Amino acid sequence: MPEYFVVRGTVEHGDERGRELGFPTANVALRDQDGSVGDGVWAGWVQRGDGTRVAAAVSVGRRPTYYGADGYRLLEAHLLEFTGDLYDETLVVWLGAHLRDQQAYSSAEDLITALKNDIAVATQWTAEHPAASLPEPGDSPLGEVRRVQG
């Protein structure tokens, strides 16, 4: 039975670096700045307020390429095959598979290459783990990370 981490949160305005790189993200603040869920890149799903579920590649951490170890810990979800504005919308995010640890890249081009690979792996994982198989997320305070069994 698969295990997921689930986070519910409201999309906040960020510095729009993801958009500048060609990978816009929905930014959700995490209450836990210590790391109860591992930092890194994850494959998962995002549920919008209307119940629509969208596959996602999700970064959790301090964004070391831009902020080193001093950045604010954040969840950034890049929704696959989605365009639109999610600001101020409350989302539920399921983190299903840890793809890799976060790392600092020496250039935007190197980061873009890594993000393209992350998206390819997340696309494959979500195809093998459809949204219909996700466990109920339950209810929790905004920004709180919870473990749930599939």
Question: Brief description of this entry?
Answer:
With 150 residues, this protein is an alpha+beta fold.
Provide structural commentary.
The protein is α+β, with helices and mostly antiparallel strands. The protein is built from three helices and seven strands. The chain has helices at residues 17-21, 64-67, 108-128; strands at 3-10, 26-29, 40-47, 53-61, 74-79, 90-100, 145-149. The protein has a seven-stranded antiparallel β-sheet. Strand 3 (40-47) and strand 4 (53-61) form a beta hairpin.
Keywords:
150 residues; 3 helices; seven-stranded antiparallel beta sheet
Report the helical percentage.
Answer: 10-25%
Quickly count the helices. Answer: 3
Mean pLDDT: 90
pLDDT < 50 runs, ≥5 residues:
none
DSSP, total strands: 7
Largest sheet: 7 strands, antiparallel
Computed Rg? 14 Å
Seen as an oligomer or otherwise, the chain set is single chain
Q: State the strand order across the main sheet.
A: 2-5-4-3-6-1-7
State the shape: globular
**In percent, how much strand structure appears in the residues?**
25-35%
String of helices and strands:
EHEEEHEEHE
Category by helix and strand content: alpha+beta
User: How many angstroms does the end-to-end distance come to?
Assistant: 6 Å
